[in-house]
Design brief:
This protein has five helices and no strands. The protein is an all-alpha fold.
């Protein structure tokens, strides 16, 4: 049985975070809009790319949260290793999706129109 889609963090804050769970850091709407406008102006983002762009924004939010938390931890904290791996994984994913949007090879890949 599949789970329902996650409620955006901004909406959970407005609702008072009913489950008191950890809130995800997401790309701010202004940042997402600015990045989207720039990619559209370059011709790198089309309507067909919106789902992938949403994933990219989510990954950027995870990377930002991990790097922010890494800066707050002391060097001997055992959580540093976990956060370092999460930040590195998010960086690899960001680079892969950036290549999809911003390189001619990414635009010409088979199965993309």
């Amino acid at each position: 049985m599949s789970r329902p889609p996650r409620t955006p963090s901004r909406l959970r804050v407005l609702q008072g975070n009913p489950g008191k769970g950890r809130l995800r850091r997401e790309l701010k709407p202004a940042e997402r809009e600015r990045s989207g406008r720039e990619l559209v102006a370059l011709g790198a983002l089309t309507r067909l790319d919106m789902a992938a762009f949403g994933v990219y924004c989510s990954i950027v939010g995870r990377w930002a949260m991990a790097t922010e938390l890494l800066g707050k931890l002391v060097p001997t904290d055992p959580q540093r290793r976990v956060l370092s791996k999460a930040a590195a994984r998010a960086e690899r994913q960001m680079l892969a999706l950036t290549a999809q949007f911003c390189t001619p090879g990414g635009r010409a890949r088979p199965g993309r129109r």
